[in-house]
Design goal:
1 helix; mainly beta; about 280 residues; Jelly Rolls; about 40% strand; five-stranded mixed β-barrel
């Protein structure tokens, strides 16, 4: 059960205070939140909620800086934005000899604990050295650790200050890709039926690219060019002006514009199998 606490410790780049942003939360009767909980932004509903499932790696994290009590109305409340260099203290799910760089992931059952990451998709890593010995080479076990979060999981960097991170987008209805979406990973997570992505109209710069990943067991379609029928998708299908789709969870395509045609430079099954031309 979450308790109120203040997890921000310092910023190694010299900031004297955490960066506070405002985030929308549900009424406390629906979702009570304690200060110091790790929250993720729910894009579909448009509010922050405590993290509750480590299976979903599409995180947009911030940390609460005040409490949403059971009697509070839906509102905007303070969150600590996760910046590069910010150090936080969180409890470990299991005490460990956590060395510098020890990899951590979120804990499904507790929004104020971090768990050792064994699969290579860490959201945070240990930077504290309190358990290092003054003599010898044996690290002490610690139950709490000073950590930094990887920027790609920060709400600040993903939505407000994207830098060079890949934007992750979930689309459950037809969507026309914009030039600003270049480099994005676009999924159909949550879709209940077929979803069509349409390429940008007009002039598309050479090297423009998007990554398309199937995360719902429904057809995910890429329309190569809405304003001409002469464009090919090379590498997936040699048919002018035709759609290409992937159908099964785990299918993916990377589409790159070469100035004339789209190049399918990577896919799970190439021109065969689950990736096919659509009429």
């Amino acid at each position: 059960m979450a308790v109120n606490k203040y997890p921000w410790v310092r910023n190694i780049q010299g900031a004297e205070n955490p960066l506070i942003i405002m985030g929308k939360v549900q009424a406390g009767s629906t979702q009570a939140i304690k200060r110091g909980e790790i929250c993720t932004f729910n894009e579909t509903a448009g509010y922050f909620k405590p993290i509750d499932a480590v299976a979903d790696y599409v995180y947009s994290l911030a940390i609460t800086n005040e409490e949403q009590k059971s009697g509070d109305l839906e509102r905007y409340m303070e969150f600590i934005a996760i910046r590069e260099g910010d150090v936080f203290e969180f409890e470990l799910a299991a005490a460990a000899q956590a060395e510098y760089g020890y990899a951590l992931e979120l804990t499904a059952s507790n929004s104020q604990k971090l768990t050792y990451d064994a699969d290579g998709n860490a959201v945070a890593f240990v930077v504290g050295r309190q358990n290092y010995p003054t003599e010898g080479t044996t690290l002490r076990n610690i139950s709490y650790a000073e950590v930094m979060f990887h920027p790609e999981f920060s709400y600040l960097y993903k939505n407000m200050y994207p830098k060079n991170l890949k934007k992750i987008m979930a689309k459950i209805a037809a969507y026309t890709i914009t030039l600003e979406d270049c480099g994005a990973i676009i999924t159909n997570k949550g879709a209940s039926g077929s979803v069509t992505l349409t390429a940008p109209s007009g002039t598309v710069p050479v090297g423009y690219h998007v990554h398309i990943a199937v995360m719902s067991d429904n057809t995910f379609v890429f329309d190569p060019k809405p304003d001409t029928a002469s464009v090919y998708i090379k590498g997936a299908a040699q048919t002018a002006g035709k759609y290409v789709s992937c159908t099964d969870i785990g299918d993916f395509m990377t589409m790159v514009w070469d100035g004339t045609d789209w190049l399918c430079i990577a896919s799970i099954s190439g021109a065969d199998g689950d990736i096919s031309v659509q009429s």
